[in-house]
Write a structure and sequence with these properties.
The chain has 21 helices and no strands. It is mainly α. Mean pLDDT is 86; it is low at 1-9.
Amino acid sequence: MTTASAAPASHRRILFASLVGTSVEFYDFYIYATAAALVFPTLFFPSQDPALQQLLSYASFSVAFFARPLGGLVFGHFGDRMGRKSTLVASLMLMGLSTVLIAFLPGYAVLGWVAPALLCLLRFGQGLGLGGEWGGASLLAVENAPPGWANRYGAFPPMGAPVGFIFANGFFLILGALLTDEQFREWGWRLPFLASALLVALGLWVRVTLTETPAFVEAQHAAPPPKVPLGELLRAHWLPTIAGTVGTVACFALFYISTVFVIGYGTKTLGYGRETFLAIELAAILFMAAGIVAAVVLADRTSAARVLVLGCIATLPVGMAMAALVTANALLGVFAWLALALFVMGFVYGPLGGWLPSLFPARVRYTGVSVTFNLGGIIGGGLTPFIAETLVKQGGLWLVGAYLAGAGALSLAGLALTRRR
């Protein structure tokens, strides 16, 4: 047992490791999202129709969401059998390598159809790595949390989302200010992907010094690890698996509509400047961080499930207000909607770091958290920019808002299942 003086330093290192890893992972993920909205349509998907280019670019973005459940299964399997530490190191390396290689990828003009195929392959690698990252980072934090602090410790991996987003979009914003549009399209967009190598090195340096969590060590001593954690999960814990999957849908829909889709819609349809829109996104993401902090403090005082219910209910009016606020020549209204949507997202996202691990026993917890979080990502986020782009072409922005409200209602149904449990 650690001494009182040593424990705080140990916990600071653990929390920093869970934060820095997910920050790097989300940075890698979001630079792709930003590039998919601003650069990739013309670089990798040539077409006479700009709308088709945008749809194809968003389709490549969705590839990672279908890789994430596979990554969750693979890394969850080894995380429940061999431990959290080595699995987290491997997931970070895979994500980082895939991201850096995108920086060296020629466009369609050089490689033809091979270019978008390789882009999708590397995007698959990004998703595979992130699929094992979030669940392991959550367990690293929650399984080391003092009594009564599970949700606040569990907030550190979700906090990696705004931190990674700020670094990613901030980098693109700086490049936009320093480079011409032609320079940015030719080579400037590659610099954030190259910079990922430095961030990955930082994450690995922090994580290799960690030890296994007390909950994993205790589970290993109590009984042999399951030979196939997924089999035990589906056999003995199928209801919380369904509940956890559906319960995460709202956070993914909120985030990818309010960032990826809205960036493309705001710059290409509403006519806002790229740098201007990135700047208001950066300001609005601070409201997400504030929402996460408020949500997890409230969750430790009440319960994570109650806070998630509040967030899902609030998602409904956020969706309904979208068409009225996200309009041309009304930048303040756009910012107001983004700030509101991302603040509410803090309430449907922040408590997941403590809530999902609470649904499963330690022996299958890595698999359970990874599977539910990543399957929820497919439903709520994987095709969301693509679907939103299609809906707005068919009937206007109010349909996108209705889609978002429906995601909130779906997550409410998932939370209701945990009450039955």
